[in-house]
Design brief:
It is a single chain. The chain is built from 14 helices and 20 strands. It has three domains: 190 residues, FAD/NAD(P)-binding domain, CATH 3.50.50.60; 86 residues, 2-Layer Sandwich (D-Amino Acid Oxidase, Chain A, domain 2); 83 residues, no CATH class. Helix content is 37%, strand content 24%. The chain has 471 residues and is an alpha+beta fold. It starts with 7 loop residues before the first strand and ends in a 31-residue tail after the last helix. This is NAD(P)/FAD-dependent oxidoreductase.
Length: 471
């Protein structure tokens, strides 16, 4: 006796994952009049591993979605000033405005994600929590839906013109579409540990601060509920051992190696456990194919050292929806729109990808970087460009123009060891050349020319209501 087949639903789009990229996609599609179902294995409110600093560009995306008011109501302070300390120099700056937003915020994901889910629901999307996707449905090489298990153990099946995998770095949709292997990956030189502290009230809560000490990097970002997020990124694998207590030990030791961070936390009380993200790699995955797309970390991930993930998840989730809302009924036009969207994300993100990978090397500050700090500490325009890179109002190329690079090299030769400066200069030229070549080849704007799989593995052809083999 055969098992009963699941009831088949038909919608315009099914979104797997209800957090930043998923809610942004769903809300935008729903507002365009499309029928959208969002599935997430979690229930909300719930936390997720994330460092959750939002530069002005990220807050501007929240405003576009209609979520900024609800997020600000969570109580995180507006961060109006940034300080970066390194090699005895302090670079201070305000934040460049993005669409009228000239401040940053650090908002814990429990509240942030819940606010985004509510916005998606208010826009007309149906969000189903505690629903785990078990298989992806294909008709020849086209993605046509998903099968899932709800919290009562019932099997559901949703057919859609578009399946959106907004399900993170370990994406089920990416794996099913044979896109899990990145076409460009750069291992990080840093591990990441963070914890929350009850703020003492002895320090201004409108300041976001970063410290560099030797090869260590540490930050303090005031966030909601009177807490401060303290994150450290020591060199990857610096401490031996794994298992119970390792994250706590590595975190505590890294904080102790940064005297100014230790001083910032004096009088503060740790709240909760240390969270860890290790063995990280930044990457680009092929992010579109017939009937499917991967916004957010599922398709593109950058080391947390530059705090770009939430902004990009919101932005490219929104842009994905805007690109396809009008063509979901035309498969050929839909696939073309998806390809253009993917090309746009690659083109817009490649420079900050390179910049992030430099900061994630896990090394002590190099001579030219020290000279940049020294110069920016006395030059407000240079400091503003540096802050603007993080908020995507300036490009990294604006910081290292030929004239400015020459100026920094001359100053470095005046203040630092000649041999070290020349070695760094040669390395800088080599690094810049490799980045330029990567941008003109691998990251030329599309992944479709690469010698990587273009069809899902274990291809399954189905007809409505037919059982589909789980993968």
């Amino acid at each position: 006796m055969s098992a009963a087949l699941p009831t088949v639903e038909w919608v315009d789009a099914v979104v797997v994952g209800a957090r930043c990229a998923g809610s942004a996609t769903a809300a935008t599609l729903a507002r365009a009049g499309r029928e959208v179902v969002v599935l997430d294995a979690a229930a909300f409110p719930s936390d997720t591993l994330s460092t959750h600093l939002l530069w002005p560009a990220g807050l501007a995306e929240l405003r576009r979605l209609g979520a900024l008011t609800a997020v600000e109501a969570l109580g995180a302070p507006r961060l109006t000033n940034a300080f970066a300390h390194g090699a005895g120099h302090t670079v201070a700056s305000s934040f460049p405005a993005v669409d009228g937003v000239d401040y940053a915020m650090c908002v814990r994901r429990t509240g942030l994600d819940t606010a985004l889910v509510r916005v998606a629901e208010a826009a007309g999307a149906e969000v189903r929590s505690r629903c785990r996707v078990t298989s992806v449905l294909w008709d020849r090489n086209r993605c046509v839906g998903v099968r899932y298990l709800d919290d009562a153990g019932r099997v559901g099946e949703i057919r859609a013109a578009l399946v959106v995998g907004a399900d993170g770095r370990r994406s089920t949709i990416a794996r099913a579409a044979a896109a899990e292997r990145p076409f460009l990956t750069v291992p990080s030189g840093r591990d990441c540990y963070y914890a929350y502290w009850r703020d003492s009230g002895a320090h201004p809560r409108q300041v976001a601060t970063q410290w560099r000490a030797g090869a260590d990097l540490g930050t303090a970002f005031p966030c909601d509920d009177g807490l401060v997020l303290c994150l450290v990124q020591p060199p990857a694998g610096r401490a031996d051992g794994h298992g119970r207590g390792t994250a706590e030990r590595n975190y505590t030791e890294a904080v102790a190696r940064i005297p100014e961070l230790t001083a910032r936390l004096r009088g503060c009380t740790r709240v909760g456990r240390v969270r860890a993200a290790t063995r990280l790699s930044s990457y680009f995955r092929r992010s579109t194919g017939p009937g499917w797309a991967l916004p957010g970390d599922s398709g593109h991930f950058k080391d947390p050292v530059t705090a770009q993930g939430i902004r990009d998840a919101l932005r490219y989730g929104r842009l994905l929806a805007e690109s396809v809302a009008g063509v979901l009924d035309d498969p050929r036009a839909l696939d073309a729109a998806l390809a253009r969207w993917e090309r746009r994300r690659i083109t817009e993100c490649r420079e900050i990808f390179h910049w992030t990978n430099r900061l994630a090397l896990g090394e002590a500050m190099r001579p030219l970087e020290i000279e940049l700090y020294r110069s920016a500490a006395a030059d407000p325009e240079l400091a503003a460009i540096t802050a603007g890179i993080f908020s995507r109002t300036h490009r990294p190329a604006e910081l290292y123009t030929p004239a400015r690079a020459l100026h920094l090299a001359v100053r470095a030769l005046r203040h630092q060891d000649t041999s070290a400066v020349l070695t760094d200069l040669v390395r800088e030229i080599g690094d810049s050349g490799r980045e330029w070549l990567t941008s003109r080849t691998i990251l030329h704007g599309t992944a479709t020319d690469l010698a990587i799989p273009r069809t899902p593995s274990h291809l399954t052809t189905t007809r409505p209501g037919e059982p589909v083999e789980s993968r």
